[in-house]
Amino acid sequence: MRFGRFDDDAREYVISRPDTPLPWINYLGSEDYFGIISNTAGGYSFYRDARLRRLTRYRYNNAPLDLGGRYVYLRDDESGQYWSPSWQPVQRELEDYQCRHGLGYTVIGSRFARIRAEVLYLVPLGETLELWRVRVTNERDTPASLSLYGTVEFCLWDANDDATNFQRNYSIGEVEVADGVIYHKTEYRERRDHFAWFASSEPGAGFDTQRDAFTGPYRGWDRPLAVERGACANSIASGWQPIGAHHVRLALSPGETRDIVFALGYWENPADAKFDPPGSPAIDRRQVAPVIARYLRDGAVAEAFQQLRDHWRSLLETLQVDTGNEHVDRMVNTWNAYQCMVTFNLSRSASLFESGIGRGMGFRDSNQDLLGFVHMIPGRARDRILDLAATQLPTGGAYHQYQPLTKRGNDAVGTGFNDDPLWLVLAVGAYLKETGDQGILEEPVAYDNASGTETPLYEHLQRSIEYTLQRTGPHGLPLIGRADWNDCLNLNSDSETPGESFQTAPYRETGVAESVFIAGLFVLAAGDMAQIAARRGDAGEADRCRVAATSMRRAVDEHGWDGDWFRRAYERTGAAVGSAGNAEGRIFVEPQGMCVMAGIGLEDGRAERALGAVREHLATPHGIMLHQPAYTRFRAGLGEITSYPPGYKENGGIFCHTNPWVMIAETILGHGDAAVDYYLRTCPSARETISELHRCEPYVHAQMIAGRDAPSYGEAKNSWLTGTAAWNFVAVTQWILGVRPEHDGLRIDPRLPADWGDVRVTRKFRGTTFRIRIHKAQGVTGNVTHLSVDGHAIPGNLMPLPAVAGGEAAVEAWVE
Ligand code: BGC
Ligand code: NOJ
Fold first, then answer.
1. Out of 162, 208, 365, 487, which one is annotated catalytic?
2. What is the enclosing helix (H) or strand (E) of 452?
């Protein structure tokens, strides 16, 4: 069952009923100011940091789930009837409800009592504000007298404190109303130099800034008294819950349409120019006033909207495909690329599943996210790499996360995840292959942000490699530390304390627990490092990496192979995890994908066997499960993984992030059919028709789909902020379509499924636009047999870089 449809030309998902199985959200903002917005206008906004600079309040885990938002009300001043064009919060039955989630904007509209209202929400590029353009049309043949309200509930900045510290917070709220603009200035009197503002393009009939005055006592946002009565109280908040509510009266003749704009913004004044006149409590509005005025004038929203659309068009133009498969095309051309940008911006901070008050930016996560967006914004990828590397520890190890406001690492979510540093090597490798910018390797970067410790970035990579080599166990495999990619495989801690976080619980390194997954990752990263070193003229380092990779392969050969698949790990007791001898957790997907991606087992058939075992034991119609059998009982020695009920999350859920590793592995073995088959099993667009089961948004990947052991088998959770986005993008574009950036050029090495025909790919790469046509007859599988550029045959399948960048190159490739 569907709850909407893709509008591929408009690059929008069009939701046709408000009661989607879960709130289906979108993101506003692209640089400093962000918001999440659901299909019923729920959500919140923040400046840079979802925890520390929260502008508006949101109630997580509310009933209904999504409460607090950018709510607009309409009231028919003749009948007294009122409604919200976005359905929530009033929930009046509407005609023609429609929500269009687009790239960086959302439009929600409907019709009620022959009044059509549509709200466009967006954040103009480069600004720290959001605009809501309410377009109201009187479809009656009589004049209409209407009241329109735009409302926000302010958050007292630190979202965590806001939700808990009421003894203080109920006394600190402050606002100021001047020239029709509502200013939220809690704590501005003391150490904050920022405030929020909420304005309307129309002269107001009234306003409220105290929540209770607007809603009425014992009432909620669903039936506010000020709307019911048709009049605000012009309340000035002092303590309690500051809000912004603007009331505007509209008289519309038959057929008339009017646009009214509400704008919400964040502003910082210089610390020494906060008040006007100085010494008074009044905000100095001289800098912000012209910005507010600019966005309330006619046409400003349309202009900002156009710029936003142009911005997205140009980002996405870097890579466009025409494969004949609608799911692949719309994911690659629009939604998967968009999701990659959102993970770049938000990391794992703010979604329906990430509260914005929890995790900062993950070191592992951010490095992997980079693989999916580097081609669109290489300059920002460069900055991200340098930020990440500057949090690296002198040992080469990493804090597991850093805070976006301070850019400093911390151990709030634990440290000692021994895979972390290796992802930096993959990220830098991807950046270099995309851009050829060798200069980044020479950038001086500190360790743990301590000035004076700078070394060239290159040395950070060396230390990453060294970190693994210094930490190997009895089988010569890498020690797992607190955990590896699977944050929940905590083999060195045995928490028995109820509620204690497994990620931060004390852990003890005894030098025994090892990870076969990290071994595979190491072989992959060491291969990348060898290439980087060789190109930098450091033959010694390149050799060292190759030798280290070879001995790691040997360790995997000897101790990582279980007979039919790769083992997962060794416990502190020396027992194997992911071994046929185990009753539960006999086979895990991660080492199968990663080891084959690293090229292990290609010569002797083990790679084929490992992937065969994945198909036999782990593949389901909804995707590939993390392991089988799921753990039925808690085992402290294995950690958080066994804390989940079977089939959820890391305990045998379909952890979608790992699926693309298997897809890539399948292409390496030449199995394009298998790769695309797996791709479509978790592909959100391909699951659109089972939305009642999948429940999450059909336009973005989810982290997890419940596995076979779970009662809700097939149900997705944790949509949006997941490494699944970047890895799917890499798998489908670089390995299935095979258009792969390499240090010396663009590789064209597709592994297409038999039932596909010709494929076209437009790829901007190092300044040249490659227009690639892959000729392939249906029924054929195989590799590129010959290739031409601008009519000239070239040997092999690596497109050399043209002598002069900036032009176009027409590439024809034949798969036979
Ligand atoms: C989740 C993991 C996540 C970790 C982050 C765990 O509870 O299951 O998916 O990576 O928390 O700290
Ligand atoms: C989600 C985390 O963000 C990611 O870093 C981790 O690898 C997976 N969970 C698996 O545990």
1. 487
2. strand 450-456
